[in-house]
Design brief:
39% of the residues lie in helices and 15% in strands. It is of the alpha+beta class and 254 residues long. The strands form four sheets. A four-stranded antiparallel β-sheet has the order 4-3-5-6. α2 crosses α4, α2 crosses α5 and α5 crosses α6. The chain starts with a strand and ends in an 11-residue tail after the last strand.
Amino acid sequence: MSSGGGAQAVQSLDWQRMFLGDYDLLFYVEIVIRTLIILVWLLALLRVAGKRGVSQLSPLELAIVIGLGSAVGDAMFYAEVPLVHAMLVMALVVGFQRLVAHLIISQEKVETFLEGTPVELVRDGVMQLGGLKRSALSYEDLFERLRPEGVRQLGQVQRAYFEQDGQLSVFCHPDGKAPPGLPIVPPWDLEVPAPPPDHYAGLLACLRCGRIHEQSAEEVPVPCGCGGTAWTPAVLDSLGGDAGQDKGRDKGGN
């Protein structure tokens, strides 16, 4: 029994075609070389893509998933792909994974190259702009990851690290011990923090990095050390409206 497929009919239940195909033994060596080249290239591309693109899977794990998925899928659907070829590719992918996993455990340089290192994003309520740039994260990306941790303003955050698996580790001050900081609730896409009123006296937070600056009523706002020029009143609780300053009074004492 045969089925139509392109210019040449395919003989159903042809065990020779299913398992070996019409290839010489040297072609299996080519499969090994092709598989290794593709896996190494895939790992390099995933490393360039960064942790944000990989998210919860390491680059090696994602490469294995892609490699196995492709090998399994091709053998399932394409009659011209012999099963032995796909089985060999699958075995090579798993063997490659075991080898690289061993190298990651024994060689720190290999682990650093493949999985990267944690990146500090926040230190004592101040965003580390270089870390955000290296991690390809925007302010909104960082704030979106902080809010589920119960963070309302950056002063609550002692440290925040972008881990190797793409997750965010957050270490906050104990309840009631946090200094005022830059509000991140409500989300800036919904409500941009308001600028300070004229003759404002109190603590200001830089909208670019979150650094705190204390200003007197007579002082004119100056650029932040990060280069930012926009400020907003620092707060203890962005939802409760408690300002971390001297009530933002003006010259009239209001």
